[in-house]
Amino acid sequence: MQLHWIWYAMLKGISCQRKRQLLEIFRSPDALFLAQKKDLEQVQGIKREEIPVLMNKDLTEASQIRIRCKERGIGILALADSGYPDTLRMLEDAPMVLYYMGQLPDWEGMPAIAMVGTRNATAHGLRIAHLFGAQAAACGGIVVSGGAKGIDGEALEGACRQGGTCIAVMAGGLDRWYPKENTPLFTEILQRGCLISEYPPGIGNAKWNFLQRNRLISGISQAVLVVEAPAKSGAMNTAQWAADQGKELYAVPGNVDGTHCQGSNQLLKEGCKLAFSAWDILEEFVPRYSGSVQDNREKVNRPPFAPEPVQPEKKRENPAQKDKKPIDNEGKSTYSVLNNDLPDLTPEEKDLVLLLTKEPVSVDSIVERAQIPTAKAMTILTMLTMKGIAKNHPGRRISLK
Predict the structure, then answer these.
(1) How many CB atoms lie within 10 A of CB 219?
(2) Alpha-carbon span 133 to 125, nearest angstrom
(3) Closest CA relative to residue 358, chosen from 382, 318, 391, 320
(4) What three-state secondary structure class fits 14?
């Protein structure tokens, strides 16, 4: 009975994990609701302090929640319902009830990828988040995030612009959208996915709720990507939840001189997987979702605020060089040999370009030959791809474009 699920979810003093354990004994909230004090006292494993909590049989609050949900167009998912995401259901601290607005996605037919990061993102971070969100949508993934300003919102925006499926996990009741400035985005998400929360209507966005919400972002996802994150941030909290839940964790390399990327760069230093594109994540799920996941990065619309790649100026033809012999083994020549007119690159970018060829090579080999910190080398390679100088290939390989 749905009312009993809401009642059980709202009981104070018993954690989600403990409620899950009690369900293994009583099988359903219906049985728990009907159980009398003497019944509870006879069950091995019931704690004495839990009995008064479970003896609260008042359904007034649960009834009011159900009425408010119906009035506001909010759906209710109990843990045992078929629409409840299996990736979340299997966790020990899964919420007893989820509330949602919009259209539930095909949890079994598409992989869900969480994309998180700082609210105070750089322009580069925003571009990457938008691009990765669009790529994930084009390649057959569901984009999940928290809906905050900065990286979270931009990833969802990119997926929406690409016509993909999006999920925003909220930290309060779905009648209190936060932040308010993202209302247009949330409205668009309702047409392409859904808003989800474990909190019923009327619950505000308290600080503690955000930390609890983060476990749902990673919980409903198969993998988590951190784009830009300071050492102490909500995104790093989500990364910790992902690690604890056994989810695949990825990060985008960032500026080694800035505090806004200290956390995400530290994840890479500790062995987190590196992502040059959303396909680096989604290609891992091809065996399981072969019917829906495929490399469609070429169909992605560029972020509207992303600058066009700088193109080298064409050199005027020198008559004296008309009879110059063609370069031998051009396929293996470096960029500097093939085109001496480099775009406006930094000295470090130019040094790394010299290590690239037209033939794809291992990213790890480039990093090793660069003889600079790994995070810094990854950042430079990312910038070269964004500037249109380099191109990523399957199997963590890279070449000149």
Answers:
(1) 24
(2) 12
(3) 391
(4) coil
Tokens describing residue 75: 């759906």
Q: Which two tokens stand for residue 365?
A: 């080999």
Q: What is the DSSP letter of 356?
A: -
- Residuewise pLDDT in 10s, the chain (401 residues): 899 999 999 999 889 999 998 898 888 999 999 988 888 888 877 888 889 898 899 999 999 999 999 999 999 999 999 999 999 999 999 999 999 999 999 998 999 999 999 998 988 899 999 999 999 999 999 999 998 889 999 999 999 999 999 999 999 999 989 898 999 999 999 998 999 999 999 998 877 888 899 999 999 999 999 999 999 889 999 999 999 999 999 999 988 877 888 899 999 999 999 999 999 999 999 999 988 899 888 888 665 554 444 444 444 455 444 444 443 344 444 433 334 445 567 877 887 888 888 888 887 778 777 777 776 777 788 778 777 788 887 667 788 88
DSSP H or E stretch at residue 279: helix 279-282
172's tokens: 């309060």
DSSP 151-177: HHHHHHHHHHHTT-EEEEE-SS-TTS-
Hey, what are 395's tokens? 């199997």
What is the greatest pairwise CA distance in the chain? 102
Q: Give Cα separations from 43 to 23, 50, 74 (angstroms).
A: 13, 12, 36
